Amino acid sequence: MSRWRVRHAGVAAVLAPVLVMLGLGLWRLDRGGMWRDEAVTFQVARRSVPQIWQLLHTVDAVHGLYYLLMHAVLAPHPGEFALRLPSVCGAATTAGLVAALGVRLSRPRVGLWAGLLYAVTPMAGHFAQEGRSYALVAAGAAGATLLLVRAVSSAPRWWAYGATVAVTCLLHELAVLLLLAHAGTLALARMPRRVWRGWGCAAGAVVLVLLPLVLVSRGQSAQVAWLAPPGAGSVGRLLGAFAGPVQLVVVPYVVLMVLAVPALFPWRGGLTLAAVALPLLLVPPAVLMTVSRFSPLYDERYVLYALAGAPLLASAGGERLAGVVERLRAGGGRVPTLPHSRLMRRPRPHLPYTTALVGVLAITVALVVQLPLLRQDRTPDHGADNLAVVSAAAARELRPGDPVLFLPSIVRRSALAYPQGFRGVRDVALGAPGPVSGTLYGLEAGPGELRRRLARLDRVWLVAEPFALRPTWYPAHPTERLKLTLVDEEFVRLRQVVRKGVTLRLYVRRPAMP
């Protein structure tokens, strides 16, 4: 094949996954409801830059750069579509970068398969439609990996690599585990000392840039106190998320990844696709799970960027399988006894489009099999909660001037994300709004002031999380405890409305005892 045709085949191999990921990402993007984490992004990003900076001193420093980015994105026209659009672009970019890695380290059809596999993975599609930083972190990690390959194999521009990793880590500090994955790649490829020296300088600069964020976020570790140590099923769940939760897809996916493993150690040294993909896939989750046995930090979303390793490894296995089949056809059934890396990397004079199309067809089947999961993920009620539903329930029950208690105070996020349902109501417990106090949901009045405010009311609406109404729940904050005590002792429940994720109760004051 001519160099011109190879170049255009490589461009097409990168462009196709980008378009597929864009299509899947834009599908039902504005589905009519944010969940709690997206609502945080939405309300924080609409604050002024000084107010965002004030907030980061007390909470969410790890998301600071992302909030500033989203401040600019949401400034022209805030809404759910604009909130999620950067994640769609990030996911599409990642799919293209995964394809570019496959093209550079193997050939166009391998890049095409890898990019398409990434695009049709339900986990990639889910975070492509979430208004948080994880899809952008995945794009940064894939871009840094491509820059590592270029620095090793051609132009050693370590400053570009270091800058990309630094920005990625500032979007989420746990992306620093990417450096360990890249160190694993260099070790597998048996890189010379000069390469290690360049990479070490870049990695050291990243750590220095990240250190202030780590020190600040360490003081905010209470935010992840809800995380539990990973259990026996964590590895299986992550495998299902990376390869796809449908067994019809998982089994051949894992088989293809296993087929790529013998190509980890190239017979002449240097980078192979498997040597790049396997550390990226395994090292960040393995390290984070291990650390989380002692100090829980692990959640699947925090290692989304490692997902790129799975389609790259599976495509490397697919290429090895295709190479064996092609040589069987050419050699009358005899399998040539070449080292594994030469089976993977041996240049060929032509591009067998039939084999490429067979791989694309197999990926299309995987998409069709997983399409119900993708469709379900795009329904408004699929998430952990839907704050639009809470606001709609409040709009049907509350009237302007009605006094409202939020139990606990974080339930106020519904009113911040969708204020239409709470327009005109009186927030009885609120002392200072979030933008003024430098908090996410505002500062509430103390117990004494709240008691005085409630003493003047004959009726009050309670907007509560379901767990807050269980007899076993005992809040740590005295204001929250007082809410429970006063509504039980001084008021009588007159009405109750239950929706997914929220309970609305109307209380009226108990009649005076004769």
Looking at this protein, list some descriptive labels:
5-stranded mixed β-sheet; two-stranded antiparallel sheet; alpha/beta; elongated; 60% helix; 7% strand
Order of helices and strands: HHHHHHHHHHHHHHHHHHEHEEHEHEHEE
**Cα separation of the termini:** 99 Å
**Sheet with the most strands, sense and barrel status:** 5 strands, mixed
Total of helices: 22
- What percentage of amino acids are in beta strands? 5-15%
Q: How are strands sequenced across the largest beta sheet?
A: 2-1-5-7-6
How many β-strands, per DSSP? 7
Quick synopsis:
The protein is α/β, with parallel strands linked by helices. The protein has helices at 3-26, 36-45, 49-56, 64-74, 80-105, 108-120, 122-128, 134-153, 158-171, 177-188, 193-218, 234-243, 247-260, 273-292, 309-330, 340-345, 353-377, 387-397, 413-417, 434-437, 447-455, 478-490; strands spanning 403-407, 426-427, 430-432, 443-444, 459-464, 491-499, 502-509.
Characterize the structure shown.
Helix 10 packs across helix 14. About 2% of the residues have low confidence. The strands form two sheets. A five-stranded mixed sheet has the order 2-1-5-7-6, with helices on both faces. Strands 3-4 form a two-stranded antiparallel ribbon. The protein contains 22 helices and seven strands. The radius of gyration is 27 Å and the shape is elongated. 45% of the residues are buried. The longest helix is centred in the N-terminal third of the chain and has 26 residues. The protein is an alpha/beta fold. Strand 1, helix 19 and strand 2 form a beta-alpha-beta unit.
